[in-house]
Amino acid sequence: MSDAPDSLIPYDEIVQEALRAVVGRVLGQVAAGGGMLPGTHHFYITFKTGAPGVDIPQRLRERFPDEMTIVLQNKFWDLKVEDDRFSVGLSFNQIPSTLLVPFSAITAFVDPAVDFGLQFQAVVDDEAEPLDPAENDSPEQADGPAVEKADDGSNVVTVDFGKKK
C-alpha cells in the first residue's frame, strides 16, 4: 500500500456535486416537459430524510428516520426543480404529500427502464438499520429500488472515495 499524499483539492466533493447535477438536469427536463416522463422512463430516488434542507411531512420522517426511496412514475405532480433542490407531490397510503429534497441529500438515482443509476457517497451512521423503500402508491413498490443491479453489467456508477482517518 502506498502512502499517497492527501489532496488539497476536494476531488471527491467536486465529482459528487457534478453527478448530482445530472439528477437535477434530468428532473429539470421532465419538469420543463410538463411533468410527463418520456417513454417507459421512471425514477427511484433515495435520499437522507434527516439531511439539511429536506422538508417532508412528520409522519414520513417518523416512518423513515434515516433514508427513504421515492418512485417517480405514474402518480406524481407539481415537480419543481431549482438549482440545488427539487420538490414533488406524491401520495403515501393515499395521503397527498409534498416533499422538498436538496440534491445534496440524494444517495441514489436509478432509471430502471434503461439500467442507469448513480450512487452517491453518504455519511454513514454507526448503527444504521436496513430500511424499506417508501410506499408511495406505485405499482413498482413491491419490487423495491434497483440500485443493487451494479454487479450485473448495468450502467450504475458508484462513487466512493475512501477517506483517511
UniProtKB/TrEMBL annotation:
Acidic residues bias spans: 127-140
Region (Disordered): 127-165
InterPro entries: SspB (IPR007481), SspB-like_sf (IPR036760)
One Pfam short name: SspB
Protein name per Swiss-Prot or TrEMBL: Stringent starvation protein B
Organism: Novosphingobium hassiacum
Lineage: Bacteria, Pseudomonadati, Pseudomonadota, Alphaproteobacteria, Sphingomonadales
